Amino acid sequence: MNTSCGIIPFRKNEKGEMEFFVGHPGGHYPNQKDLWMFLKGAVEDGETWKETALREFKEETGLTLEDDVADKLITLGSVQQNPHKIAVAFGLEYPNIDPNKCHSNMVDGVTPEIDKYCWMTYDQICRYTHPTHMFFYEQL
């Protein structure tokens, strides 16, 4: 069974609504135009779930988090995303991410793993994310 770990940055917008920072999968999922997910990836040998989440966030946004951010991560648990994958998420209040300044690592040297980024409200994320991931957003 594969395990993927990631971070769900969140903030409150000017209306007081919770928003979540998500990405649109590029490389392997170009036909799923309405799918938006939190940024996550596979655990590598010897990594903890937090280490994986931090590494994947940097790889998939190009942003470097402060050294003490691991202490600020909120453990949200895990869900079985499909018969072959478990998804693990951590929340992080991180309101100042500019989607226009993010860039992803490349899948094949040419195609970005994440091709778009945005902030979505809870109502929006309900329509556009993987149903099993709602467990994480509901906790936040």
How much is the radius of gyration in Å? 14 Å
Our measurement of the CA-to-CA distance between the termini, rounded to an integer number of angstroms, reads: 26 Å
Mean pLDDT: 92
> Helix fraction?
10-25%
Segments where pLDDT lies below 50 for 5+ residues? none
Secondary-structure element series = EEEHEEEHH
Helix-strand category: alpha+beta
Our count of helices gives: 3
The coarse silhouette is globular
Describe the largest sheet: 6 strands, mixed
**Extended strand count:** 6
Beta-strand percent range: 35-45%
List keywords for this structure.
140 residues, globular, 35% strand, single chain, alpha+beta, 6 strands, 3 helices
What is the fold's blueprint, element by element?
Blueprint: E1 2-12, E2 18-25, E3 39-42, H1 49-61, E4 74-82, E5 85-93, E6 114-121, H2 122-128, H3 134-139
Parallel strand pairs: 1-5
Antiparallel strand pairs: 1-2, 1-3, 2-6, 4-5
